[in-house]
Amino acid sequence: MATHDQRGLIAVFYGSIVFFSLICLFPFVLAVSGSLSTESRLAAEGYSLLPRGFTLDTYRFMFASKATQIFQAYGVSLFVTVVGTISAVLVTTAYAYVITVRSFRYRNWFAFIAYFTMLFSGGTLPWYILATKYYHLDDKLVGLFVPYLLNVFLMYLQANYFRSIPHEVTESAQMDGAGHMRIFFSIMLPLGRVGLVTISLFYALQFWNDFYLPLLLVSDQNLYTIQYMMYSMMANIQYLASGANTQISGVVIAPPLESAKMAMTCLTVLPIAILYPFLQRYFVKGIIVGSVKG
Amino acid sequence: MQDGAVKAQDVPHTATHTSRRRTGKGWSGFRKDSPLLLLALPGLLVLILFAYLPMSGLILVFKEYNYNGGIFGSPWAGWSNFEFFFSSMDNAIRATRNTVMLNVLYMLTGTFFSVAIAVILNELRGKMFIRITQSVMFFPYFISWIVIGAVLFSLLDFDKGIANKLLTAVGAGPIDWYASPWLFVVVLVLANIWKSAGYGAIIYYAVLQGIDPAYYEAGRIDGASRMQLIMRITIPMLIPSIILLTLLGIGGMLKGDLSMIMGVTFLNPLLLPTTDIIDVYVYRTAIRSGEFGFASAITLYQSIFGFVLVLVANKLAGWYDRDSKLF
Fold it and tell me: What CATH fold (topology level) applies to the domain A59-291?
C-alpha cells in the first residue's frame, strides 16, 4: 500500500512540474498564434492557442509599413547590446582585477567604494536630473549603455572568479617582469574566461531587455530600442495606425493592431529564444556561484 | 539581480594588518600603483557619475528646483519641501504601502514557488526530464516586462482576452482587469511568480544537490515515507538558505521596479491605487510633470529608510549566520 501511495505522489510531482512548465510556455504560444491570426477574426473572437485563420499578413504589413522603424530599433538594440556588453565587461573585469590584487594597498578602498553603492542610492530623481541636465545623455546613443557599465554585483562575481586563480600564476608573471596591464590582459582575462562569459551574458541580457534608460532618456524615435518601440506601441495603440492603409499586393487593408502587437512580441523575444538553449547553462552557473552558499 | 547575494569574503575588512608586501608609499608607490589606478578609473568614473553624484543630488530636497539653476544652483528652500511632504502624507503613505505590500507578496509567493519547484525536482529521477523542464521554467526570467505586459494584455483584455473567455464559459462573467486595482495585485503577483520562480528554483535546487544521500538512506532504512523524507530532511536543509535570502530581501523592501509597473500597467490611472509604488510616483510627478519638490522629499525618504533597512537586514542575517554577513 505504501508503494501505491508513493506512486500517486510521484505522479502528482511530475504533473505539477509539467503543468508549471506549460504555463511558462503558454504566453509564447499565445503570442505566436496571435501574430499568425487574421486581424478580423482576432478582433471578433479574441486570442487563442491556435491561430485564428492562419496568415502571414501581419508580418507582411509590419515589414511593409514599419520596416524602417523595426530595423532601426533592432539596430539600436543590437548596437547597445554589443557595444554596451563589450565596454561593460572591460570596465567590470578591470575593476574586479584591481580589488583582487593582493599587494595593492587601496584595494579595500576600491572594493568599499563599489560596495557602498549597493547599500545607499540617491534614487531616480537626482540621477535623472544629472543625466539629462549635466551629462546631457538624453537622446544620445551613449546614454543607453554608459550608465550600466559597472554592475557591482557582476563585478563581485568576476572578482570571485579571479580569486579562484592561484596567485602563484600572477606572482611568477611579476617575477618575470610583467606589469599589471600585461597580467590583466594576457593572464587574468584568459584564465577568468568562465566568469567573463557569464557576466557578458548577464550584461547582454540586461542591455537587450532594458527599458528603464530609454524610458528616462529617449524621446527621439530614431533612438528607440526594440523594447521601447514595443512599449510605445502598447501604450499608444494609435502608434501603428500612423502607417495605416498600406497597400499589400494591391489590396488596401486596415492596420492589424492586435496581431501586430503579438508579432512585435515575437520579434522582440526571437533573438533570446534562439540563443537561449546554447547559453542558459552559463547563466545557471553564474547564479549558483553568485548566490549565497547553501 | 540579487543585490544581497554577495559572499562574505568579497567585502572589505577595513583594518587588515598583514605582513604581505604592499605597494610602496609616496611617489614610487604611486608609480607602481598607477597601472592599477588606470584600470580602476573607468569603473570609478561610472560609480561617481551614476551613484555618488546622485547621492549628493539628494540636497535637492532643500532646494526650490528650477531648470536653469539645476541641483546645485537652485535657491535654497529650507524645509518647505518637507512641509509639502507632510501636508500631503496620503500620497507618500499610499506609495510606501504599495511598494512594501507588493514586495512582501512577491517575496512570500516567489520563495514558496521556488522552493516547491526545487523540492519536487529533487524527488524526480529522469535526468532529461529535469533538464528540459528546468530550462523551460527558467526561460521567463529572460523576458522583459514590456513583453510580458503585451502578452498579459492578450490574456486580460476585456473583449478579446482569454481569461474573460474562460470566465464567461463557466458563467462567472467578464472582469475588467485593467479597472480593478486590487485584482490586479493578484495579476502582478502571478506575473512575478511566472517570471522569477524558475530562477529562484535554480538556487534552491543547487543547495539540494549538495545534500549527502546518506541522510535519505538512513531515513529510508528507518521506514520513512517519501513525504516524511521531504518534510524531515529536504525542507530543513533548505531552511537556512530560505531564511538568509528572506532576511537579505528585507533590505530591498523600499525598492520598486519601475519597468515592471510601466511594462505591465502602462501607468493605467485606474490601477494606480495599488500600483503607484514610490518609483512610479517619482516618475509620474517629477519626470513627467516636473513637480520636483514633493518627489525630492520622497526620494530622500526612500534612500534613507532603504539604507536603514539594508543595515537591519544585514544585522539580522549576520545574527542568524555569521558567514553570511555582508559587511
Answer: MetI-like fold (1.10.3720)
